[in-house]
Amino acid sequence: MTTPRHAPVLLDRVVALLAPALEAPGSVYVDCTLGLGGHSEAVLERLPNARVIGIDRDPAALQMSSERLAAHGDRFTAVHAVYDELPEVVGSLGLDHVDAVFFDLGVSSMQLDVRERGFAYSEDAPLDMRMDPTTGRTAAELLNTATAQELTRILREYGEEKFASRIAREVVRRRETTPFSTSADLVELLYASIPAPARRTGGHPAKRTFQALRMAVNDELAVLRRAIPASIEVIGVGGRVVVEAYHSLEDRLVKRAFADATRLDVPPDLPFVPEGAEPALRLVTRGAEQADEHEIAENPRAASVRLRAVERVLPSSPSSPGVAR
Q1: Is 35 annotated as a binding residue?
Q2: What is the DSSP string of 45-61?
Q3: d(Cα 3, Cα 17) in Å, to the nearest integer?
Q4: I need a labelling partner for 129 at 20 to 30 A (CA). Which of 4, 218, 251, 316 fits?
Q5: Which residues are involved in binding S-adenosyl-L-methionine (predicted)?
Q6: pTM for the full model?
Q7: Cα of 148 vs its chain's centroid, Å
Q8: pLDDT tier at 322 (50, 70, 90 boundaries)?
Q9: Is 56 annotated as contributing to ligand binding?
Q10: Is 37 annotated as contributing to ligand binding?
């Protein structure tokens, strides 16, 4: 098995955004996408008053990060869960709120660098792509059972693939005689389906299809759509939510959720803000922050990152869903 490597994206900036919420003794930070633990390790080392809860759906990533962070003792707790289960995780640990929540929505090096997981189009491996390999259908099962219409939608919506319908038709035609089982099977079909001029632009011709299948197999957008509001509800006053997104659909979802949470909902010509009408959160970042040229040169995975953060300035409404407090 290949040994995974990992370079956390925008590490110093992420820690700087989290730090004001994690200065008090006993403050609690939740890393919703623990992966190999790079961001959490930096929090544990640089913010000595913080306790870290690390969530990941991948048992192998949890084992590796737990070994990496074992030296921090009971300041670190690993939890096997999907990150939209955040309220249940926090409640199960006896907490009524936390002080910071972080999401790194990029694909973990744990999945990309280990060929046996089937995420990488550059390696021939079983076409799996499940972040939790103990549950759910694989990418091969999806390719071998979905209708052409459903495959077209997945490739067009999640991969922004211009040749989605052509690829979907070819997938259905091929599987009638030879069902898909490995990544090489799919890459071969993509080379045959995408016209040569298009293959020479926009990166590897399999990039968009593999991205779309991974998002569909793991139901990534639906999970994120539930998780971001849950994270906003679970932080106390002064708490922060920090998100790194790498896909336009994911960033758009985060941007809208943060805009809704920070919107001042009064008529624009009103000369004052009525008591109780103030938004409970404020934007910490101005728009989306990006990696600079130096970091992108050192870590190409940082090229598409969009970083956003919000802070709670007022208590949540008693009627709001989430963890009671």
Answers
A1: no
A2: HH-TTEEEEEEES-HHH
A3: 31
A4: 251
A5: 37-39, 56, 83, 104, 111
A6: 0.88
A7: 27
A8: very low
A9: yes
A10: yes
Distance of CA 285 to the CA centre of its chain: 18
292 is known to lie in a ligand binding site: no
| Beta strands across the sheet bearing 98-104 | 76-80, 50-56, 27-31, 98-104, 235-245, 306-312, 281-283
Task: Establish whether 83 is an annotated binding residue.
Answer: yes
To the question of whether residue 54 is assigned a binding role by annotation, the answer is: no
* Helix or strand holding residue 105 (H, E): none
Tokens 């624009």 label which residue?
Answer: 268
The tokens 């008591």 sit on which residue?
275
3-state secondary structure of 240: strand
Q: Which amino acid is at 161?
A: E
Sorted by sequence, the CB contacts under 8 Å of residue 242 that are 6+ apart come out as: 14, 17, 18, 100, 101, 102, 103, 307, 308, 309
> pLDDT > 70: what percent of the chain?
92
pLDDT in tens, 71-86: 999 999 999 999 999 9
Residue 324 buriedness (CB in 10 A; 0-12 / 13-18 / 19+): exposed
Residue 275, C-beta contacts closer than 8 angstroms, at least 6 positions apart? none
Picking from 223, 233, 224, 225, the residue whose alpha carbon sits closest to that of residue 87 is 233
Q: What is the pLDDT of residues 286-313, one digit of tens each?
A: 999 999 999 999 998 899 999 999 999 9
Length of the chain: 325
